[in-house]
From TrEMBL:
PANTHER family: NB-ARC AND TPR DOMAIN PROTEIN, ZU5 DOMAIN-CONTAINING PROTEIN
Lineage, top ranks: Eukaryota, Fungi, Dikarya, Ascomycota, Pezizomycotina
Protein name (Swiss-Prot/TrEMBL): NB-ARC domain-containing protein
SUPFAM superfamilies linked to this entry: P-loop containing nucleoside triphosphate hydrolases, TPR-like
Protein source organism: Bionectria ochroleuca
Signal peptide coordinates: none
Length: 778
C-alpha cells in the first residue's frame, strides 16, 4: 500500500512539470502494476482469513461436540416411585423363605409380592419378553419417575438413556424386575450398572442364570403353604374341618401343589358350589381328556404342568360360557401381560358378533366368570404424557391371562375358530387406532392411545408368525399408525419392521386401497433414508416407484405428487446427485403453488425450500442456501416441530439433534458466526431442552447468544428469544440467579422492541418470544 502511495506521488510530481499538447500524460504503468499486485495481495489475505476463520470455527465445533459427548447428566427423580403393573395380592400365602432369601429369579406372582414386601424407594416392573416391550417399559418407568419431560416429542432412546443414567447415579435403594425375560440380547443392552440397586429376573429360560450369581427354580409350593392358599380361596364355600383337611391334602397332592392349579381349582369349587368330594370326582372324570399340552415342545412341557393344569383347565374350559370362551380365543392374539379393557368396551361396537363385549353388564359377567375360574386376572396399564402444557396421567384397567393358558386355548380352537378370533382382534384394533394418510399422519395428540395399543399389535404379529397364519389386509392401516408412532418416538428399527410387514402384505394380498399402499412405500423409503447413509439406493428405488405410479394415476397438479418429488429429491441428494434433486424440488414447488389452502401451501413451500437450502449447502453454494433459509424459510426458526409442517420433515428431522449437529458443521465451514448459524444453535438448544439434556442445551444457547450479540447485526428479536429459552435451562439447572439475569435481559430487549414499559416476566412465555421473532421477520 505504501509503495502505491509513493509511486502515485512520484507520478503526479513528474507530470505536473510538463505540458502535453496532444497525447496527454503517459499511462502510470508502474503504479497500475502495483495496484494489481495489491489486489492480488488483498485476495490472498482474504482467502487466508477465511481459511483461518473456517479452521477456528471447525475447532470450536469439535470442542462443542467433544464437550457434549463427555457430559453425563444425572437426572433427578421423584421418590418414592413404585411402578408396578399388578395390584398387590392381599391373598398371597406362603413362599416366605424364598422371599427372605432375595433370589434373583422369581416367578411373576412372587416377584409382585417381593416388590410390596420390601422398603425400596423406587420399584420398576419391566416386561421383558421382547425388545419392544422392554424399551416401552423402561420409557414408562422414566415418565413415572419424572426424569423426562412428559412431552409429545420426547425421544424414546433419550428417555431410556436418562433412566439408565438415573439408575447408575441413584444413592437410594431401588429394585428393577425384568419380568418374563425371553430376549436376552435385548436385555443385555439395558442391563443397569449396579450402585445401590437390586435386579430380579423372572424367566422360564435357564440361561437367565448367566446374569446373576443366585438363581432358584420356583415350582411347587410346600404342602403347608399350598393348604393355606387353598383354604383362604374357598373359605366362604368350604369350612376348614378335619374331613375337609384330609380331602384337601389329597386334592393338592393330585394337582402338584402348583399355585396356578390351586387358584383354578378354587375357582371351580366356588363356581360350581360343589364339596371337595365332588371336586375329586370332577378331576377323575377329566383326567383322561385329550392332552392339552401336546402342542408344546418337549423342553417346554413340564410333568407337573401336564398332570395338574391339564386336569383343572379341562374342567374350567368346559364349564365357562360360550361368550367367555370367545373372549379367551380373542385374547390369544393380544398381549398376555395386559389388554386394556377399553379396547373391548369401545372397539366391540365395530363387529356385530362381538358387540356384546361393549356392554358393561355383559363384560362384567364374562370377566367375573373368568376370574372365578382362575383364568384371568386384573392388571394396570400406566402411561403419562403432556398435552397443551397440562400433565395427563393415565392408569387404564387391563386384563391379564397366563401365557400357558393362552397357548392351550389357541391350540384347542379349530382353524375356523382361530381365523374368527383373528378377525375379531383386528376389528377391535382397527376401531381404536387413529387413521393415518398423506394429509393426516401426525399422531402426537394420540400418543397415549398408540402407546397402550402397540403391544397388542405386536402380539397379533407374533401369533400370526409363530402359527403360519396370514396377516390380514385390515391390519395394514394399523401397522401404518404403529409405524408412524414409532417414527415419532425415534424408534426407527421398529418403524422399519412394521412398515416392512405392511409392504409385504400389500404385495402378497393385493391391497385395494392403492393410496395407502403408496403411503406405506413412501414411509418405508423415508425410514430407510434416515436410518443409514448406505441405504439411499434402496430409498431412491422405492421413491422412484411411487413417483412413477403417481405420475400415471394422479392429476399433474395434485399436491401429493409435488410432495413425493421432494421425497425422491432428498434420496437423490443423499447420493450426491444435487442437481437432479434441486430440479425435482422445483417441479414439486410448481405443483405446491396451486394449493388453495394458504396454510398448507405455506408449510409445504417452507419444507421444500428448506430441503433445497440443505442441498445448496452440500453443493457449497452458501449464498443461495442463505437466501432460501432467510427469505423462503420459517421465520420463527422452529419448523421442525410444527404439527402441520411435516411432509419434508420425515427425512430431515427424524433424528433432529444428530441432523442439526451435522448441519452446524457445514454451516460453520460455509458461514462462520453468521445469523443463520446462531438460529441453528438455538434450534439445537430447544431440542436438547425438550429431551432433558440440560448441559447440552446450556452450551447451545450460549453459542447462539454469543453470535447474536454482535452489534453490527440486527438480531434483537432472536437474541431476546435465545436469552429467554436459556433462562429456562438455567432454572432447571438450579442456577436461579443466572436465570433471573438472563430473563431480565430478554424482557428489556422485548419491551424496547415493542415499545412497552415494565411488563413483568411472569406475564410472558416462550410462545411470546417466538411470536416476536415472527413479527420482526414477517
Amino acid at each position: 500500500m505504501l509503495e502505491v502511495f509513493l509511486e502515485a506521488n512520484h507520478y503526479i510530481n513528474e507530470i505536473s512539470k510538463k505540458r502535453y499538447a496532444f497525447t496527454g500524460p503517459p499511462q502510470p504503468i508502474k503504479m497500475l502494476n502495483l495496484v494489481e499486485h495489491l489486489k492480488k495481495c488483498k485476495t490472498d489475505i482474504e482467502a487466508e482469513a477465511v481459511a483461518v476463520s473456517m479452521k477456528q470455527n471447525h475447532e470450536l465445533m469439535e470442542q462443542v461436540r467433544t464437550f457434549i459427548d463427555r457430559v453425563v447428566i444425572e437426572p433427578r427423580g421423584n421418590l418414592p416411585c413404585h411402578f408396578i403393573a399388578y395390584p398387590e395380592n392381599h391373598s398371597f400365602r406362603g413362599r416366605q423363605e424364598t422371599l427372605n432369601r432375595m433370589e434373583d429369579s422369581l416367578k411373576p406372582t412372587l416377584g409382585e409380592q417381593k416388590c410390596y414386601a420390601f422398603n425400596f424407594r423406587a420399584i420398576f416392573w419391566i416386561p421383558a419378553q421382547t425388545s419392544g416391550k422392554l424399551e416401552q417399559g423402561l420409557l414408562d418407568a422414566a415418565h413415572q419417575l419424572g426424569i423426562v419431560d412428559s412431552s409429545a416429542m420426547v425421544d424414546q432412546k433419550s428417555g431410556i438413556k436418562s433412566f439408565m443414567t438415573w439408575l447408575r447415579s441413584c444413592k437410594e435403594p431401588w429394585l428393577i424386575v425384568f419380568d418374563n425375560a425371553d430376549d436376552f440380547d435385548a436385555l443385555k443392552q439395558y442391563w443397569p450398572s449396579m450402585s445401590s440397586g437390586s435386579i430380579l429376573i423372572t424367566s422360564r429360560d435357564l440361561s437367565a442364570l448367566q446374569w446373576t450369581r443366585i438363581g432358584e427354580e420356583i415350582s411347587s409350593m410346600s404342602a403347608e403353604d399350598a393348604k393355606e392358599m387353598f383354604f383362604s380361596a374357598i373359605e366362604h364355600h368350604i369350612p376348614r374341618s378335619e374331613t375337609n383337611e384330609r380331602a384337601a391334602e389329597s386334592i393338592l397332592q393330585e394337582i402338584g401343589h402348583l399355585p396356578l392349579a390351586i387358584s383354578a381349582a378354587a375357582g371351580i369349587i366356588a363356581e360350581t358350589e360343589c364339596d371337595l368330594a365332588d371336586f375329586v370326582q370332577l378331576c377323575e372324570e377329566n383326567a383322561h381328556q385329550p392332552d392339552l399340552f401336546a402342542h408344546m415342545t418337549p423342553d417346554f412341557r413340564r410333568i407337573d404342568y401336564d398332570l395338574t393344569l391339564e386336569t383343572v383347565w379341562n374342567i374350567s374350559l368346559q364349564r365357562i360360557s360360550a361368550k367367555s370362551m370367545q373372549l379367551l380365543s380373542i385374547l390369544t392374539y393380544l398381549d398376555p401381560d395386559a389388554v386394556p379393557v377399553n379396547l373391548f368396551q369401545t372397539g366391540g361396537r365395530s363387529h356385530p358378533e362381538i358387540g356384546h363385549l361393549s356392554k358393561m353388564t355383559t363384560w362384567l359377567q364374562i370377566s367375573k366368570e373368568l376370574r372365578k375360574h382362575g383364568l384371568c386376572s386384573t392388571a394396570n396399564i400406566y402411561v403419562s404424557f403432556r398435552s397443551d402444557s397440562t400433565d395427563s396421567e393415565l392408569t387404564a384397567p387391563g386384563i391379564s391371562v397366563h401365557r400357558l393358558l393362552l397357548q392351550t386355548v389357541f391350540h384347542r380352537c379349530s382353524s375356523q375358530e382361530k381365523q374368527a378370533a383373528l378377525d375379531f382382534a383386528v376389528a377391535l384394533l382397527k376401531a381404536e387406532f387413529p387413521k393415518v394418510s398423506d394429509d393426516k399422519f401426525r399422531l402426537s395428540t394420540q400418543w397415549k392411545e398408540c402407546h397402550i395399543l402397540l403391544p397388542q399389535v405386536e402380539a397379533v404379529l407374533s401369533r400370526c408368525q409363530n402359527s403360519n397364519m396370514a396377516v390380514l389386509v385390515d391390519l395394514v392401516p394399523i401397522l401404518c399408525a404403529c409405524g408412524r408412532y414409532s417414527v415419532e418416538r425415534r424408534s426407527f428399527s421398529d418403524a422399519e419392521r412394521l412398515f416392512s410387514v405392511a409392504q409385504q402384505v400389500c404385495q402378497d394380498r393385493g391391497l385395494q386401497d392403492w393410496e395407502l399402499a403408496q403411503f406405506v412405500q413412501r414411509s418405508l423409503g423415508s425410514i430407510l433414508l434416515e436410518s443409514s447413509a448406505f441405504r439411499c439406493e434402496e430409498a431412491v428405488k422405492i421413491f422412484q416407484g411411487v413417483v412413477t405410479r403417481y405420475e400415471k394415476t394422479l392429476e399433474p397438479d395434485d399436491h401429493v405428487l409435488g410432495i413425493t418429488y421432494s421425497d425422491l429429491a432428498q434420496a437423490l441428494a443423499a447420493k450426491g446427485e444435487y442437481d437432479k434433486a434441486i430440479a425435482l424440488c422445483r417441479r414439486g414447488l410448481s405443483i405446491i403453488e396451486s394449493i388453495k389452502d394458504n396454510e398448507i401451501r405455506r408449510d409445504n413451500r417452507f419444507h421444500i425450500h428448506h430441503n433445497m437450502a440443505r442441498m445448496y449447502e452440500m453443493k457449497r453454494l452458501p449464498d443461495e442456501a442463505l437466501r432460501l433459509h432467510l427469505y423462503e424459510g420459517d421465520a420463527q426458526g422452529n419448523g421442525l416441530r410444527q404439527e402441520q409442517s411435516v411432509y419434508g420433515a420425515w427425512n430431515l428431522y427424524a433424528v433432529a439433534i444428530e441432523t442439526h449437529m451435522k448441519a452446524l458443521k457445514i454451516r460453520h465451514t460455509l458461514f462462520g458466526d453468521h445469523y443463520y448459524t446462531a438460529i441453528s444453535y438455538h434450534k439445537l438448544g430447544e431440542l436438547h431442552l425438550e429431551a432433558g439434556s440440560l448441559q447440552d442445551a446450556n452450551e447451545s444457547f450460549r453459542v447462539a447468544r454469543q453470535i447474536l450479540s454482535d452489534p453490527m447485526v440486527n438480531t434483537e428479536a432472536e437474541l431476546a428469544r435465545t436469552l429467554w429459552y436459556w433462562s429456562m435451562v438455567k432454572d432447571k439447572l438450579l442456577e436461579t440467579e443466572e436465570a433471573a439475569k438472563l430473563r431480565k435481559q430478554a424482557m428489556t430487549i422485548r419491551n424496547t422492541l415493542l415499545g412497552e414499559k415494565c411488563v413483568p416476566a411472569s406475564n410472558c412465555s416462550s410462545a411470546d418470544f417466538d411470536e416476536i421473532v415472527v413479527y420482526f421477520n414477517r
